[in-house]
Amino acid sequence: MYAVIMAGGQGTRFWPRSRRKRPKQLLDIVGSESMIRQTVDRLDSLIKPKDVYVVTGKEHVEELIGHIPHVPSENIIAEPIGRNTAPCIGLAAMRLRRIDPEGVMAVLPADHVILDKEGFLETLRFAGDVAKSGDYIITLGMKPDRPETGYGYIKKGSVVSGQWPVGWAVPTSSESKDGVTPPLQVFKVERFVEKPDKDTAEEYVKSGQYLWNAGMFVFKVSTILRAIEKFMPDLYIGLLRMEPALGTDSQEKILSEVYGELPSVSIDYGVMEKADNVLVVPSTFGWNDVGSWTAIDDLLPRNEHGVVAHAEHISIDTKDCIVYSPKKLVATIGVSDLIVVETEDALLICHKSRAQDVKKVVEILEKEGKGKYL
């Protein structure tokens, strides 16, 4: 199995900590190591660093290599421009086709938190075995524990049986009994659903038929490239133009010529929603996509008043706030449900319910040409 780690995002919802030159995946949001380092390290007993490939923006290559020096530098694939996840995955698959066309690739974002490492690796092993057994595109779906409106959802269909390895027998019930977690299962995907409103999300969770779309995929190199050829022929033609140069000294030159012409489309929209061989493995390994500042509430300890503080903080009648200020004292009085983030050149104060709108600040800064804050 090979790992392809997507590390091209800007993390605009984590402004002002996350910037163009230092995006979220290069920050130590949770823990002492950067998120990209944590992503690579948690794979160590399943996928060795020599089989890890990272796709990132060319402006981040040098710093990224410093974070993961145990990954060969030639395995860092630099995108000259961001074109969403379909070109990113297609580029990595085309690179791997030159090495192992029938190899299994696990596609993982660089900025997710996984709380149960062993459960995660067990799920990846299972998905890898399913991928080897046929022409399947497999996605990992997280069993929801709340009606989250910030995630996309997957509706699972019928259970799929197959010649899985010993230990993967399909149980009669998908629910744990007497505290024992049942073996992993795989289901057909009935449909993908965009981020719902709260009422719809509540219905999804109550039904038990929907999973969070975690954006993690497993498939054979040949399988995903056939799917791209079928459903995104323009992208496939561009990948073919680049293929001869991949892994050579000419790679940077050909990518700079071709990559900007590729369609900017997500793999979900471009392939997943159209293919009929998509399966989902329901998973419970403690996942968080760290999509905005409110994710900190679930990942870091709170005091008895629900305050998460990475700061010297004086709190008077303050409840359910997130305070990040490593260099300045922050005092809050009589406030609740706020996000307060201070960096050397910027201060963010935001109600928790508007955390997803932090990206709008970045959009305004771009529009007004205030690049020093980006």
* CATH topology name of the largest domain: Spore Coat Polysaccharide Biosynthesis Protein SpsA, Chain A
Got a strand count? 15
CATH top level class name of the largest domain = Alpha Beta
The helix fraction, in percent, is 25-40%
Structural class: alpha/beta
Which series of helices and strands comes N to C?
EHEHEHEEHEEEHEHHHHEEHEEEEH
Average pLDDT figure: 91
Spatial extent as radius of gyration: 21 Å
Beta percentage is: 25-35%
CATH superfamily caption of the largest domain: Spore Coat Polysaccharide Biosynthesis Protein SpsA, Chain A
Distance between the termini: 37 Å
CATH architecture of the largest domain: Alpha-Beta Complex
Task: Briefly summarize what is shown.
The chain is of the alpha/beta class.
Structure description:
Helices cover 28% and strands 25% of the residues. It has helices spanning 35-41, 61-67, 85-97, 117-133, 198-207, 221-231, 233-242, 251-258, 267-272, 296-299, 358-367; strands at 2-7, 52-57, 76-79, 104-109, 113-114, 137-142, 153-159, 187-193, 210-220, 278-283, 287-288, 308-316, 322-333, 338-342, 347-351. The radius of gyration is 21 Å and the shape is globular. The chain starts with a strand and ends in a 7-residue tail after the last helix. The protein has 2 domains: 2-291, Spore Coat Polysaccharide Biosynthesis Protein SpsA, Chain A; 294-373, no CATH class.
